[in-house]
Amino acid sequence: MMITVAIFSSTAISYVTLAYLNLGMLGTALARVLSSFAAFGYGIYALRGTIKTMFDTESLWKTSLACFFMAIAIVSMSYFLEGIVSQTLLLLLSVVLGAAVYFCGIVALRTVKKQDIELLNESLPEKLKVVSVWLDRLILAD
Asked: Other CB atoms closer than 10 Å to residue 30's CB: what's the count?
C-alpha cells in the first residue's frame, strides 16, 4: 500500500509541475525535490515501529542551508544566462556551480565531522581510500 501511495504522489507531483504549472526544467527539479521529501516521509512513517529513528539535527539544518545557497546560485545563474547559452551548456554549468557552492557551503558550515570521514574510509574499497584522505585534508583542515 505504501509503495502505491509513494508512486502515485510522485507521479502527481511530476504532472502538476510539468503539465499544469509548465515549469520546464525547474519543474522537473522541483518535482524531484518534492517527491524525495514525500518518499522520505513515507519511509519514516513505514519504519516507525520497526526501527528507532534518530536524526543529526545539526547536520540536517546545515545541509539544508547549503542546499538553499546552491539553489539560489543556480537559479541566479540560469536567470542571467538563459537564452545566451544552450540548454546543454546551462545544465553543465548548473551542475558544476551547484556542486561547488554546496561543497563550499558544507565546508563553511563545518557540517562534516571526523566521524563521517572515518565511516567513509571504512566503507570505501582500497583503491578509493585516497578520496577520504583528500576529504579529510580539505574539509577538516583547521
From this structure: 17
- Residue 35 lies inside a defined structural domain of this protein: yes
Domain limits for position 1? 1-52
* pLDDT tens by residue, 88-123: 888 899 999 999 999 889 888 888 888 888 888 888
Q: Give the total number of structural domains in the chain.
A: 1
> Residues 31, 55, 120, 42: is their CA dihedral positive or negative?
negative
Show Cβ contacts of residue 95 under 8 Å, excluding neighbours closer than 6 positions: none
| Residue 11: inside a domain | yes
In sign, the C-alpha dihedral spanning 72, 74, 77, 29 is negative
Residue 84 φ/ψ, nearest 5 degrees: -90, -40
Whether 17 is covered by a domain: the verdict is: yes
Predicted structure pTM score: 0.64
- The answer to whether residue 7 sits within a structural domain is yes
Q: Rg of the chain over CA atoms, in angstroms?
A: 19
